[in-house]
Specification:
Number of strands of chain A: 0
Number of strands of chain B: 0
Order of helices and strands of chain A: HHHH
Distance between the termini of chain B: 66 Å
Number of helices of chain B: 4
Radius of gyration of chain B: 19 Å
Shape of chain A: elongated
Oligomer: heterodimer
Mean pLDDT of chain A: 85
Strand content of chain A: under 5%
Radius of gyration of chain A: 22 Å
Structural class of chain B: mainly alpha
Strand content of chain B: under 5%
Distance between the termini of chain A: 81 Å
Structural class of chain A: mainly alpha
């Protein structure tokens, strides 16, 4: 009975995150569509989006089950402290993991860009005529 | 309120460090890639605003629940609405960052024959 209630909670949690999950999927499709034009950037963006997608799924499961294991195993006198500490540690782990995904995305944003504003566009250094 | 906000900042310290690092990097790269830096900056600043707004709203709901004697069910309903709104704003931030990754790039020239 408790198991089905937990599954329902997980489903509800995932439904609340549906806008982000759908956006991540749409962005992944966009990155794949851009693969031929910018293979390296698309790869890094795909890694970041895939990681964020997994992050959301994994931590939805973790938050659904893990706190209860610690809270139920603690003696009743220590439960408020255990609850506070469990959520603090889980919050730190979740946010560190999210920070990794965002750092990869920031790498994708600035990677492979020419050092000058004019470079990289048509007429950039690769199209210049060598004076010699 | 301050104590709650500090606890939330402590929990999100690694994420906030990456966001601040990204903001600094965007400003440094502004002259080279103004459009990319602007979109990235908007996305990252929006993320920090999103964090501050939803942390304050969560705290307000918790406070109102006690002072106005809301039921747990009522507070839970409000939290669910807040979660969905928070999720939609996170989705907008993702779209902005993915846009920044591809904007202003010249296609890689085809290799081979």
């Amino acid at each position: 009975m408790e198991g089905s209630s937990k599954l329902f909670d997980l489903l509800k949690n995932l439904l609340e995150q549906l806008p982000t999950l759908l956006t991540l999927l749409a962005c992944m499709i966009f990155a794949i569509a851009r693969w031929k034009r910018h293979p390296k950037v698309s790869l890094v963006v795909l890694i970041s989006l895939g990681y964020l997608f997994l992050h959301l799924l994994v931590f939805a499961v973790v938050y659904n089950w893990v706190p209860d294991w610690f809270i139920h195993s603690a003696s009743s006198g220590f439960q408020p402290t255990v609850i506070r500490n469990v959520y603090l540690v889980l919050g730190l782990i979740t946010n560190t993991s999210l920070a990794i995904g965002l750092a990869v995305m920031l790498t994708a944003i600035f990677m492979g860009r020419p050092s000058s504003n004019r470079e990289g566009y048509i007429g950039g250094p690769q199209n210049r005529v060598d004076p010699q | 309120m301050i104590q709650y906000l500090l606890a939330m900042i402590l929990q999100r310290a690694p994420l906030l460090l990456v966001l601040l690092g990204g903001i600094l990097f965007s400003i440094v790269r502004w002259k080279r890639h103004p459009k990319v830096s602007l979109i990235t900056l908007i996305g990252l600043v929006l993320y920090i605003v999103h964090f501050l707004v939803f942390t304050s709203l969560t705290y307000s709901v918790l406070t109102f629940r006690e002072t106005m004697h809301w039921s747990y069910a009522a507070a839970n309903n409000i939290f669910e609405v807040l979660n969905v709104l928070s999720d939609i704003s996170f989705a907008i931030i993702i779209v902005l960052l993915v846009t920044a990754a591809f904007v202003g790039r010249r296609p890689v020239p085809a290799t081979g024959s």
